[in-house]
Amino acid sequence: MDADPGSRYNQSIRTIRNDRQPHRRNSRTFDRVAAETEEIMKRRVIGMLLAGAMAAGLLAGCGGQEQGGAAVGENQAAAGTTENGGSAGAEGTGEVQTINMYTMGIGSTTDYKAVQDAINEISREKIGVEVNWTVLDIGQWFEQYNLLLSGSEPVDLMVNMGGVSQGVSQGAFLELDDLYAQYGQDIAACYDEEFLKAGVINGNLYGIAGQKDFAATTAITYRKDIVEELNLDVSNVKTLADWTPVMEAVHEAYPDMPVFVSNGGNTLNQFGSYNWDSLEDRLGVLMNYGEGTEVVNLYETEEYEALIRQMREWYQAGLVDKDAATNTESWGDMVRSGKGFFSLVTGNPGSEYEHTLNTGYPIGVIPITEPLSTTGNVTAVMWSIPYAAAEPEAAMKFLNLMYSDPAVSDLLNYGIEGVHYQVAEDGTYTWLDGQDMSSCAYHPAMTWIWPNSYIGGEWQGAAPELGKKMTEFNQNAKKSKAMGFTFDNTSVINEVTACNNVIQQYAYGLEVGAVDVDTVLPEFRQALKDAGIDKVIGEKQRQLDAWLAAQE
Questions:
Q1: What is the pLDDT of residue 16?
Q2: Which residue in 487, 508, 533 sits closest to 297, CA to CA?
Q3: Ramachandran angles phi, psi of 209, nearest 5°
């Protein structure tokens, strides 16, 4: 490692900003991968948004260490010194650097510039960095994501959702190893090394995940009030088949309400967090919770066929929303409006609280798989520094601050105390009097996107001590043998695109039971073979074998 890696980065990056060094980024590769990147990003981001993952405030700190949810004003009063007691300003010189940060926003984010200014009051004094923050709504994000990666926009720090490997294949992200070693001490204190390596591609670190759920279950998520009203016993439900009598009873009592509703734009591959490691794209997976190392075709397995046959039985019995295959509305919205009883979504320790807050109904969650941690779970939300960043050092300093400062965490999550929320008598955060989601100018409802919400305050009604519980959940989950492996699909990008088009055509109907399995499943399997799935699986197996050998 260089004695001063930051200086080396600054010099090289400023050169890049001047001439773009086109030889470092293959434009043909960029164009070929861009469309695939957008589709993968769109599916993963929509899935996370519809799930509303970690929508409530969290309480525990890094590594399960509990911290109180101090009010923003209290934290700001102590924000004038660095973690190590150093003087305010950039390395004590008083110089202030400005970085351009891009994130995606949902909910109410119109007042984010005021929040930005409040954050800058802290970051100027602690690390000598100010942030110029741009929030793109969902539509803008999909339209501009590849533009941000291309280097034509001034971006120093950005969040990406499931797209780090694609960004690396495009030459869009900077290697973070030296920057992390020099400026990421507080990040390192939060991290299990096994999860950090999920952001390592070809031996270099390109993405750092925020503290969140690094594992997932597939869970039956249902309205508890209906179960209690009908006096139904769900204590012994372990499988989808066990759930059928409950569905039948609900259908009899509420014949006009769909029992099962799909999760809108995430209908495709709703079993994505089942008992296999999807190896990011499901075009070749590791079965049995990733315990083996043989890459197989998911859609030819007995497990997948059993699942879609169960869905077909439900559909033919009238237990599935007849529009499930084409529905674009989230399951939460449908339940909120009284148009559904349950769905299959990913689960974690905060799911019941989260979904109860989001739907307005008491929600129960029954895991039907064990928690599984894969590379995809970790890389679903990551922070990266673009290759063309003008201020990579300052960007890493600011990322480290977001991981370690409770006041910054609260500002990102909830805005400014007294303007966007208030502290209740029990110490939790809640709306101002007369305020709600529709009238609050800043309430993104996406704590899961930020680097470390575990150190901040707790929103009223959220799962208590969720940070501590999530840490235990992550640590105790089954770990796939491919944890840290990332598939480079560049050499088979045409086959990947063709296979994804086939999945788009067939999987929706099969996975909600809307089509005949005996007729459509063989067509689906053959169409995947014609599209080149065997070639994709062969290349993925080759890369996985090489990666496993390098770990020994």
A1: 34
A2: 533
A3: -80, 145
Model confidence pLDDT, tens digit, residues 333-357: 889 888 899 999 888 888 888 888 7
For the chain, which domains are there?
5-53+62-212+378-458 (3.40.190.10)
Q: Which helix (H) or strand (E) holds 496?
A: helix 493-511
**Winning range, highest mean pLDDT, from 60-69, 117-126, 151-160:** 117-126
Residues 6+ apart with CB under 8 A from 43: 265, 266, 268
Helix boundaries (H) for 58-97 = 72-77
Model confidence, pTM: 0.75
Q: What is the pLDDT of residue 265?
A: 55
Which CA distances in Å does 206 have to 133, 164, 169? Answer: 21, 7, 11
DSSP 83: T
Q: How far apart are CA 537 and CA 295, in angstroms?
A: 7
Taking Cα atoms as reference points, which of 191, 444, 221, 190 lies closest to residue 350?
Answer: 221
> What is the enclosing helix (H) or strand (E) of 158?
strand 157-160
Secondary structure (DSSP) of 102-145: EEE--SB-TTHHHHHHHHHHHHHHHHSEEEEEEEE-HHHHHHHH
Element (H, E) at 422: strand 422-423
